[in-house]
Amino acid sequence: MVRTALRSPATTLAVVLATLMTLPLADSLYRVPIQVSDSLEPLVIAAKYDSAQHLLHDSLTFSPTTFRPLRYLQARALLAFTQATGVTYHAVFRGLHVVLLLMLIALFVAAVRVRTWPDLVAFTFAFPVLLGIHTFLSMLLEAFPVNHFAEVGVCALVLFVLAQHQPRWFVPVVASVLLALSLSVIESGAMVWVTVICCAVAGLRGINRTTVVATTVVFVGYLLLRHVLEISSPGVGGHGSGFGDRFYSPEELAQRFGAHPLGFMIYNVTGGLASLLFAEPRQGVYALLAASREGEMHPVVLINVISSSATTALLIWYAVARLPRSRSAWSDADRTFVAACTAFIVNAAFNAVYIKDEIMSPAGLFYAIAAFVAVRALIDSLPSRTLAATALATCVLTAVAALWTFRAAGVHYQLRYDAFTTRNDWVEVLRPDKHDDWPEDPVELGLTERLRAEAINRRTTSPSFMPRWTDRYWVE
Amino acid sequence: MWIMTGPCLVLAFLGAWWTAGRLAGDGLWPPDEVTLSEAVATRNNAEAVRLIESGANPNQPSAVREGLLTSGYAVTIKPIEAAVGAQRADSVRTLLANGAAVDQEELRVLRCLEQTRHDSGVRELLAAQSSSDVDCNGVRSPLERVR
């Protein structure tokens, strides 16, 4: 099958390009130590339990608003794997992050299906969109022991790719299993069900009625289980979030919007979608407003807004030009485009209570797929246009591609920066002058000491030794 | 049409270059070789702790290259002086927690240095060591160029 897929030289070149850009990215990602925030505590909890069954049972009641039993079981399994193999915790946990990254890239390449030279040209536009969009970086920076948002992204893309092919008997089974796995690590796992529904609505042939029914049953079962376990959804004030030109703490949000949350929720949903389409707001904060107030605009804001807005304009052009026809007349590309766009639009609803870039990370994957389809169609349309229009379209596309590529290159810098700050976080753990605060449990102490030693002994690059201009051009 | 592929090809070429560099050595933006004072001056507290745990003396002056704390010349200073010079209260606290000793004369030098760099966090930490007013007459800044 792989040999068949690689028979086209354009396909081979797309794989080569993706590989060349992904390998250093994998290296940059691997350099980030295991995080203290959101990672140390679940690892300690997973290690301290005497059995997986006991851990599973208790994890159902760890939080009144979350149902994430697999988070702890995955961590426990990886801890056991580390002990069995004798490799470092870093190699196992960060190695898994890298594997998830490679799977995402491979699935994206499979989803866009480069077969011809025009496909390859569109791919060279869309691939930097995938890597450079801020939601992708947020997904890479995820602090959980296992990257749950990447897991959700992988599961959603697996189904998206399956949806593009002929229906197979195993698709309902695979879809149900992937949905169940996703929902048991994080609430955003519901995006896997959304993906199935959007693919079905768009008419992608790999998703049949059985798959829709099976995954809907799993999803309804999940909601019922949450109800039975009395797990509620988080309300406004559970997390900090932005509004207008500033970020509010959970307490401030509860005070300001707690009594009448509807307007704030609408702001969040529209803001989540706008952040994907126009790179503004970020975490609910409009940097453009803040910049106008402070009288200083960082170039990164302009680069992100221009590149995202131009690409969104391209998507709108495609939708207006291709979709008004009847659904039965849609091509495979049209269906792929509709499935991707509806998925990222629905994803915005997940921001209702608070906006976070990570929540939109599956949407970022679908945005890049939609961008591929739109650019491919624009390339196809060029021969029928005047020379001036063709030249103008080519220049604009090249300029936008350059901006996206610049954003993608910045991911390396931001991962280096994150590695530096994450490693520094470990200095505050087991401080010699606060011996009284050290854990008394020998398992917890031993694990914490080893994690700390691994992080401290992995040297990172200080931003002081990286180019000074990078902050203004790559960090918002 | 092919001109559109240019930016992506450049990044792919750079990716190949960075990967080859990584295989041959450290690749893109490798970890820097620093002294203990330089680690502190670049707010690299984790590297400072690693160096101390590897045997570096937190009270021993070491070189700080030009451009980090000073412009146009290098200095040789104690790590805690680098922390005050870099206006890093967290670095001061890390050094004190990991064996840095500050006697009254050194404290006077640090407090006078803080008065030229101005950092409220550092000022509070140093004031906690001595509440009396400081007289900076005749105190030479460790960041001054040695003639």
Description:
With 476 residues, chain A is mostly helical. Chain A has one domain (2-474). Chain A has 21 helices and 2 strands. A two-stranded antiparallel ribbon of chain A has the order 1-2. In chain A, strand 1 and strand 2 form a beta hairpin. The longest helix of chain A has 39 residues, at 387-425. The model of chain A has no long low-confidence stretch (mean pLDDT 93). By secondary structure, chain B is mainly alpha-helical. Chain B has a domain at 36-129: Serine Threonine Protein Phosphatase 5, Tetratricopeptide repeat (Alpha Horseshoe), CATH 1.25.40. In chain B, 50% of the residues lie in helices and 4% in strands. Chain B has 7 helices and 2 strands; from the N terminus they run αααββαααα. Chain B has helices at residues 6-24, 36-41, 45-53, 79-85, 89-97, 104-117, 120-129; strands spanning 62-64, 75-77. Chain B has a two-stranded antiparallel sheet. Classes of the chains: A mainly alpha (476), B mainly alpha (147). The interface between A and B is large, with 52 and 42 residues.
